[in-house]
Write a structure and sequence with these properties.
This protein is α/β, with parallel strands linked by helices. Helices cover about 35% and strands about 20% of the residues. It contains five helices and six strands, in the order βαββαβαββαα. Strands 1, 2, 3, 4, 5 and 6 form a six-stranded parallel sheet that branches. Helix 1 packs parallel to helix 4. It is globular, with a radius of gyration of 14 Å. It starts with a strand and ends with a helix.
């Protein structure tokens, strides 16, 4: 089983987090892809996917994730059996739209039959916690060993 880290970013923070996750999970076969360049047809239920997604504008997907999810919506693939986790990025000063990009990503994958596992991480840029540090800690909570044997 491969670990596929997909990031959707506006300013590059999601990419930085994706790279930190890949470093932390280096004991596994890890690949990192920008969602902008990733075809949803390449989603493989044999892989474990980690989606790192920022929030943009009024609680929307970042520009880097929009084409991926537009293609996913258009193709409507059956993602039954695909397992994924989400690390969302946002800022609580935006209230109701805080971390909405990651939530939208999860909703769209679940709507196609994918299964979200682990805690949905929500980084708050209003805190002193660095997103890379939170991501490294969160990576240790992911049930990857259990998924590999199950």
């Amino acid at each position: 089983m491969r670990v596929v880290v997909l990031f959707g970013s506006e300013l590059g923070t999601a990419e930085m987090v994706a790279e930190a996750l890949a470093d932390e999970l280096s004991a596994y076969d890890v690949s990192v892809f920008d969602m902008f360049d990733f075809d949803p047809g390449d989603l493989d239920a044999d892989d474990f996917h980690i989606v790192v997604c920022s929030t943009y504008g009024d609680g929307e997907l970042p520009t880097g994730a929009e084409p991926f999810f537009a293609l996913l919506d258009a193709a409507q693939p059956d993602l039954a059996g695909l397992r994924f986790a989400v690390f969302g990025l946002g800022d609580t000063i935006y209230g109701d739209t805080y971390n909405r990009g990651g939530e939208i990503a999860a909703e769209k994958l679940i709507a196609r039959g994918a299964i979200q596992v682990g805690e949905h991480a929500r980084h708050d840029s209003s805190t002193e916690v660095r997103p890379k540090d939170m991501a490294r800690e969160w990576a240790g909570t992911l049930p990857i060993p259990a998924l590999m044997t199950g």
